[in-house]
Known about the structure:
Blueprint: E1 5-11, H1 15-25, E2 31-38, H2 45-58, E3 66-68, H3 82-85, H4 107-117, E4 123-127, H5 132-140, E5 148-154, H6 170-174, H7 176-183, E6 189-192, H8 194-197, H9 204-211, H10 217-236, H11 246-253, E7 258-263, E8 265-267, E9 278-280, E10 292-298, H12 300-311
Parallel strand pairs: 1-2, 1-4, 2-3, 4-5, 5-6, 6-10
Antiparallel strand pairs: 7-10, 8-9
Helix pairs in contact: 1-2, 1-10, 1-11, 4-5, 5-7, 9-10
Bound molecules: alpha-D-ribofuranose and calcium ion (CA).
Calcium ion binds next to loops.
Amino acid sequence: MTAPRKIIIDTDPGQDDAVAILLALASPEALEVLGITCVAGNVPLALTAKNARIVCELAGRPEVPVYAGCDAPLARKLVTAEHVHGKTGLDGIDLPEPRMPLQKQHAVDFLIDTLRAEPAGTVTLVPIGPLTNIATAFARAPDIVGRVAGIVLMGGAYFEVGNITPAAEFNIHVDPEAAQAVFAAGVPLTVMPLDVTHKALTTRPRVEAFRALPGRVGPAVAAWTDFFERFDKEKYGSDGAPLHDPCTIAWLLRPDLFTGRRINVEIETEGRFTLGMTVADWWRVSGRPENAFFVGDIDAEGFYALLTERLARL
Ligand code: RIB
Ligand code: CA
C-alpha cells in the first residue's frame, strides 16, 4: 500500500473549485491535503478564503488548514468572475458561515515553509485559480522550485480558445505574468485546459446522480451546478457546464481517464488581443522545449463515475 500523495490545493472557490476540493478530501487513501491556499480570482480573496472553509466544513474536514494568499495579480488589476459564480462565489445554495479559523500564516509563507520542510520531491501543487500565489512563492524562495514534485493546474486553452477573452482562459488571463513564471520554472507540469474540461459537461443525468446521493454533499454540488451552468449553457448552447477544476484531482486519482501530449506552452504577456493566451505548440512546429503535459481528452463517463462514487463517501 503506497502512502497517499501529498498535495497543496491553491484555489479561488468558485463552485468548480469546491467540487475539486471535495473530490480530494473524499480520497484520503490516495491524497493527503497538506493545506488549501486561497487566491483572488473568481471572487475577491476575502470570499475565496471564506468559501474554502465552507467547503472543508461541508466535507466534515474542519481540521484542514486554509490560508489566505495574494489579493491581486502580480502586475495587473484583479479581474473577477461573479457573472459566472455569483456574488458569493458559491451561489446556488446557502451554506452556514464557516466556524473553522483561517490560518494566520500567509499562504505564500505556508507554501515556502511546507516545501522546505517536506522531503524534496514529495509535494504536488494543484493550482486551480490564477497562479499568483505560486509565482510569488517561487520568486521569494527560488530554492523551493526544485523541491516541487509536480504541478497539476487547471488553466489555458488551445483548440477550445478563450472563455474570458477570445484568446485567453480565465485563470491565465487574470495573472499572465504569474503564469509565465510558473510555466518557465522547470517544474514537471500537467495542464488541464478548456480543451479537456469542455468535454466534461454536467449533463442532467449526471447532475441528478449528484442530487440523489445520500447526505448533504451531493445535493449541494447539484445546487451549485444548477447555478453556474446557466452561464455556459447560454454562451455555448451546451448541454451543461464544464466542471473545470475537479479534472486536476481526477487526473491525480485516475490518469488513465485522460490523454494528452508533452509540448511547449508559452504564455502571451504582451498581446493587444491575446493577453493570457496559452500558446500551445500542439503540432511541435516551434522547436521550443517541451515544458508541459497538455491534456487534450477525457473519458467523461469515467470522470463522472469517479466523482459521483467519491462524493458519496462524504
Ligand atoms: O476558466 C475556468 C477557471 O476559471 C476555473 O478554475 C474556474 O474556477 C475559474 O477560476
Ligand atoms: Ca478555479
